Task: structure prediction
Amino acid sequence: MNVRPGSDTADSDLLHDAFRSFDDAAATLQQSYQTLTSRLEQLDVELADRNEALSRNLRANEELRAHLTAIVESLSTGLLVVDTGGSITRCNQAGEHFLGLTRDRIVGRSLTVCLKEAQLDGDVYPLTTQQGSAVTLSHRALQTGEGSHAGSLVLIQDVTAVRELEDRLQRRNRLAAMGEMVGRIAHEIRNPLGSIELFASMLRRDLHGVPALRDYAEHISSSVHMMNRLLTNLLLYTKPDCSHGGWHETEALMLDALTLAAHAVAHTRIDIRLEVNPLASRIWCDAGQIKQVLLNLILNSIHAMPGSGTLTLSATLTGGQTSGGPALCLSVSDTGVGIAPAQRQKIFDPFFTTRDEGTGLGLAIVHAIVEAHRGRIDVESVEGRGTTLTIVLPHPPQEEERVKTSGSPSLDRRDRSAAPVTIGERHFVEEETSA
Result:
């Protein structure tokens, strides 16, 4: 065999170049692999960061959604979201309450149908819900972020307190005007009454020997005295004298008023309950005037319970403010015939009465005395179930020196807690409420 040295050398060089190219390609591939691995690790880190950021955003959005839902559900204003087709897509708890419907009977149904079913489709102010609350309806357009129409919001606002304030203001203005007129008339009538009484007394003296004619003079004088008492009550209504204020025992005032009403309670089957919260054991007032107020309310309650029933006198201290501070509430409740809604706004008007023998001045004087004490009187009544009249009076702090100078001695309830209290011929047991 003939060997060609030059040919072997070329093949060897060729093989060497091939291995070197393979090594270069392998190194390049290894470098590319490492680069891809590094990039993949970097992408994993970026993906993890983005996933974490997305999770945080989702949690924040969920918390915001839950927070907004809690706010909407906590609103005292009823909220209904209505789409462009007039169907309700969302409502809150207040909306359920005012409509008197469950949420599954609201969502997805027509707004018109729901309002008609809830009897809130009228056009008077204010509307009255089935629960007795006074409400108003207002509509607001609902728009997207781009400004396009997306439906509407219906707000149901409870204006019961506002309505009560309006009624109270109207009543105060009406009674003030009537009081001014009544006061002037009372003064004008009182002047000739004095002359009539003078001439009647002269006739009684001159007709001493004529009994039949003297009786006529007595009747004239008696009628004059009756008219004078009526005018005195009228003047008391126009300007009650509440200048003798001081600290008094609340329970003692109630018992005194019950004692004065003993003649009306004696021949009835009325149960009497007395409930005085220890925090309301003392009251700052004109004792004589407040006793007259309680007496009038007690007599009205007795007349409202012909035959039998339960009369409850209670005293509590509340945070409800009358003039910037806590308030003491004196309530007189009965289980009588109640007051018709049409009469409820008139019961404090002078000369308004539902009794044939009444003068219509009792509650008018009550209202005037309470107003003079810078308080108010609230009425709650249901026909056939009874009435509660609550006197709300300012309750100033009991300064030590004022307590010491109070004319009413402190009562030790422990000595009397189990003993029955006698009012005329009636017996009842006092009930002390917890603080």
